[in-house]
Predict the 3D structure of the following.
Amino acid sequence: MAYLRVAALAALLIFTFLPPAGARLNPDLAAPSLVLNLPSRTLEFFANGTLVKTYPIAIGKPSTPSPLGEFYIFEKEVDPWWFPPRTGEVVPSGPHNPLGYRWMGFAPQYGIHGTNAPWAIGLAVSNGCIRMHEADVEELYEVVPVGTPVRITYERVKVRVDGTGEVSLGIHPDIYGRHELTAGEVRAALAARGLGWLLTDGEIAALIAAEADRQVAVARVHKVRVNGRTLVERAVTLKGVMYVPLAPVAAALGAGVAWDGDTRQARGAKRTVAGTVLGDRAYVAAGDAHALFGGQQVFREEDNVLAIDVVALFVNGRPLKGEVEVVDGILAVTVASVAEATGQTAARGTDGALYVRGTKVPAALVGGTPYIQLTKVYDIFGAYVYWNQEARTIELTYPFIEQGGSD
């Protein structure tokens, strides 16, 4: 039954795993190693412990299964001849040779080789050897020296986190009828990546029942950087919503936030927002985190980082209540907070604009609140502005007295 299921999925696998056209491996990659997983019919090429490329393979049929265990490449051969078992025949290199044009032996009678039947890739059809597409095996042959470690596993669940932070889960068939997969094993595989909290029991059960036999994207994790410091905890995007770990972000900002586990709400100094629990940790949506903490949030796709910057505002060395935003790429503070700190009045004119001492304030509305860019504060309020990038503070000095010369 397992064999028939594999056959039915062959066409999908061939197209799913084919490497990009023209992609070649760097022959100078250090410390190469190979990991072959039989249920997924994949060969993974690693260099220095980092996954470089994944190839589709054909494996041994259930009556002549591929071996499991730790091996190494002990011989290599170009244009190998085939000696069919128990026949005494000899098949020289050429289009009728099922070994293709490359052979890498990893155990007596067993090797990784090409094939003259590319349709078989993705199936369990061989006498135990590992077959590859000819272009793939020729590429691999150039970067795999004698002595390269080979590990053959029987893992029905595969958890992967790629360079963009995408988390995918693969549930693969029990080709040899050796292992019935449990939800506990799936959760343990996620936990090994620090993601044991990611899926509910129901979601795991559904994935096992579907047995998609391919990597299915389930989430994306992101680094979180608060005021320039990268947190250990990560944000996560689930079903299109990015969630931020509440307590670590609050601690990094020195912000007092109370979590109500009964109502699933986070209460800050000014606002209360809804949250959720993932595993044993409270999270809030990134948009709600912005409402809760203020400041600026920027997600940098190129390095998969959510940067949260909350700037502290001081006037003459005293903390000033007021949020800092970015207006047209320039830090800005509320008009009301600067006016209060400097003892001045921002009055609404007949044209609806704000005026200070008869001068129109170049204000920009952020969420309905008037803000003024730091570069314009001195012109309107006469307060000197100093931005401390390292400390993430804005310091206003008022009144600002210019020191003249002695002549």
About this structure: Residues 1-22, 401-407 have pLDDT under 50 and may be disordered. The chain has four domains: 2-153, 157-220, 222-309, 312-397.
